[in-house]
Design brief:
With 136 residues, the chain is mainly β. Helix content is 0%, strand content 37%.
Length: 136
């Protein structure tokens, strides 16, 4: 095999299989020996390198929905690499947060009263509306 391979992106198909809740990715990499195919999957991407005769297939596929890379399965048959990997539930790693009450405990408010009588509106014997009435 030649060390001066042309790097080429393989024909790729990717789709969500709603029935199995998996991402299915198919790479057309004819002529690549199985033992030279290198596939790496992260939670948000798939990377492929596969040398074949004078071509080296290279692909990087960004995923819009996280997957479970440790559960991926791959089958290579007749030049077609098929990878199935389950989608990850976005709440799978969620952490429940304990809720505390803010601030100090609620205490009854105390109002300091002054001995001065409330202001009386001019020409009236009633207290001004903004002032509380004192009862003796």
């Amino acid at each position: 095999m030649s060390e001066n391979r042309i790097k080429m992106a393989p024909d790729t198909v990717a789709y969500a299989d709603r029935g199995t809740h998996k991402l299915v990715v198919e790479f057309a990499i004819p002529g690549a020996p199985t033992d030279t195919i290198d596939v790496k999957i992260l939670g948000d991407s798939i990377h492929l390198t596969a040398p074949a005769k004078d071509i080296e297939y290279v692909a990087a596929l960004a995923l819009v929905w996280p997957v479970k890379p440790d559960k991926a399965e791959a089958i290579y048959e007749h030049g077609l690499l098929r990878i199935e990997v389950p989608f990850k539930d976005p709440m799978e790693d969620a952490v429940k947060v304990a809720i505390k009450t803010a601030g100090a405990e609620t205490k009854p408010a105390t109002i300091a009263t002054k001995t001065a009588p409330p202001a009386i509106a001019r020409g009236s014997s009633k207290p001004v509306a903004a002032e509380p009435a004192l009862t003796h």
